[in-house]
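Re: iron/sulfur cluster structure - here you go.
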Amino acid sequence: MNKTIKEDVSIVLSGEAGQGIQTIERLLTFILKREGYYVFATKEYMSRVRGGSNSTEIRVSSKPVKSYVDKIDILIPLTKSSVEHLGDRVNEDTLIIADNDSLKLENKNLFNVPILSIAKEIGNEIYANIVAVGVILGLFKINIKTIEEYLRERFGDKGEKIVSDNIKAASEGYKLGKDFSENGEIKIEISANETLKDDLLISGTDAVSLGALAGNCDSIFAYPMTPGSGVLVDLADFSKNFDILVEQAEDEIAAINMAIGGWYAGARSMVTTSDGGFALMEEGLSLAGMIESPLVIHLAQRPGPATGLPTRTAQEGLNLAIHAGHGEFPRLVFAPGNLEQAFYLTQKAFNIADKYQIPVFILTDQFFVDSYYNVKKLDLSKIENKKYFVETAEDYKRYDLSKAENGVSPRGIPNFGKGLVIVDSDEHDEEGHLTEDLDIRIKMVEKRLQKYDALKDDFVSPEFFGNENYKYLVVCWGSNYNVVKEAIENIDNKDLAMLHFSQVFPFPENAVEFLVKAEKIIDVENNATGQFAKLIRAETGIKIDSKILKFNGMPFSVEELTAKIREELQ
Amino acid sequence: MSERKNIFSLENEKELDIAWCPGCGNFGILNILKKALEEMEEITPNNFVLVSGIGQAAKIPHYFKNNAFNGLHGRALPVAFAIKATNPDLYVVAESGDGDMYGEGGNHFIHNMRRNVDITNIVHDNRVYGLTKGQASPTSPQGMVTPVQVNGVILNPFNPIAVAIANGATFVARAFVGDMQNTKEIIKKAIRHKGYSLIDLFQPCVTFNKINTYAWFNEHTYKLGEDYDPSDKMQALQTAFQEDKIPLGIIYEEKGKPTFEEQLTIYKQNKDPLFKRSIDVNKLEGFINSMR
Ligand SMILES: Cc1ncc(C[n+]2csc(CCOP(=O)(O)OP(=O)(O)O)c2C)c(N)n1
Ligand code: SF4
């Protein structure tokens, strides 16, 4: 059997939790990127620490790749059941590279590679995954030196023996992969480009966390919940190099109150969580609304209700983020669509929160935070951070109406200036003391809500992609940016365009002109009720009839979405 | 000292519309706390933050001249913790009722002691929910009849002192507002104590608690003697369980245990509070580029 794969290859590794799939993912993506390929990786996993069936998809391409595909060109299963787990995605076109002496699979496209026995020979079964890495890199005929260098960097601190065993495991696999390639059984033809060496390879989690650092985030308070905890872990890791206060709170209620306490004292604090954890934070959100505290909330969505599918993806938290909290107060919700947006919007979130004294959300999801791909240099020259708190005078009043601009009164912090800073969760007067005076109540409500108008200065417009004279407009938000874009590129129809919202609330007004121009609007979302379509209806009166909704916990694949959008064009 | 008199009093003190019932123990706490603060030269209304939750007791910051954060029911401690952790230059006192601190805020009560952050936690313990009109609180005595516990409280009362000692709190005291001098000294020591300090402060609720009145507290409490050694943890635990006559004073004190903020690397080289710091963009750029 001879097969040539051109331009774009999808490699899937699958096995049980605990078999080192994540290590393979990292090694392969980083080495391939260093060798000048575009890579994309995403994983799907079960909510367990050992066993089950997990997989990671790695796309390697000569062009940028940023989304998930169903097709599997090459599969490396580490267990028998993992092949069944992948279902229809494994078909007659899929090449399977496996240690079939132990797996005993029946498949005509099988390449039996003694991964396990090689590992055992080197001294330990745990090297099986590194042998597999070697095989793949052999197929690409990567310079063996790059592999050695990377393994040395990665495992150097574990001692020479571990490094040399890893190198041995990788080289043995490498030889086999190279043989497949040289005798024409599996040929991969993807061109590499030297200049990609300098690209960054980061995940959605990294993009949010680095954006937080760039936004001068100095403290994070969180209670672990997948998939939000990655940002907590990242910032804890960054705290080895930067001054960040990281505290694992006793629960989400504590976390959000801590973050608000941090801002009160002049820090720039954030929380990170998932929908279920955020549900507990709701009362704290209202507190931020009432005392006009800045706050940054990273909410990584997953399927609900309740704990739902803990490790899967969804866009079911939009209504939650927009409507959470009791009473009426302004907020802003960003939903980045790609890694660059995640970085810049998170950075911006801290400044917007500070400037308007409101809570700002970064709404991501499991698929988004767990995906990696090449990112060009992040431009830090554009980064501008401003701390908006003021030095107070003796007669300072926290909620001074006369000094308020667009509802924003100068924010003092304790012990900076001569004034006192008093905040109160009850309705309060200008000084911050609680009041039951109903006339003051009206003034304060109006003051807070006035910020909605002011916020317009900082609106992030939706991003348009496609032909200006479109008839069909696909609208999407958050993590569907890349997959919609790739589907539209595939369809290549001049009547088709996309409008992606990375600010979902307040709804950017300039989106209306795009919406009214379309003959048909096609909404794409990862939820069952079309939450964003409803938001558009509520904000603009425009009714969206056509919805492509997916809510089984998996992201849209390029093929699937391409087909579904095509159907809508009939 | 004399020139510091009334520095924590509001200018229009006389006209204040205080929400407490006449005769309530909260008035005494307000006066004692003001006096204690006035006597502490290191503290000013500016470098001091009073954090509270919700309840009658929790309104206390509004009758004071100082920085104040009157937050949510049960959530004073997380706020107080974060204020201190992000700005260790501030003196932080978290003050609220027993329902707030031990009921709604129970989880935070337990975990903030473990943090040993340098804050003082004063609990107005009236053994009842005042603001919501007299339901049982975690410290209500068994048998107490309320509009909700119509046949009397069945639940075993919460023992904040024993819990705090067992949980590693480094300063645990009990006081009674009727005993002004002693209470003031305990407050001063608690604030000066390095680490988390708890004062469970008995405060008669004259409206809803007809059992634990001024007379009852007078009769059922006694002052720990000069010979009492608060550093003896086992003896302190035993003392925490004395019920027929309840001891007042510092029941347990452990000195020298590092505080939360002392252990943070962010303050090892640089003592600046976080609001004075900014990210070094060049360093960040180098760091990001190392992720290739
Ligand atoms: C989340 C929440 N639940 C309930 C309440 C209603 N509530 C206000 S004060 C209070 C109890 C106060 O009791 P305590 O803390 O003992 O203070 P006291 O009024 O006795 O001084 C309750 C239940 C609230 N404000 N918030
Ligand atoms: S209800 Fe009780 S505790 Fe509250 S103010 Fe009145 S007397 Fe004091």
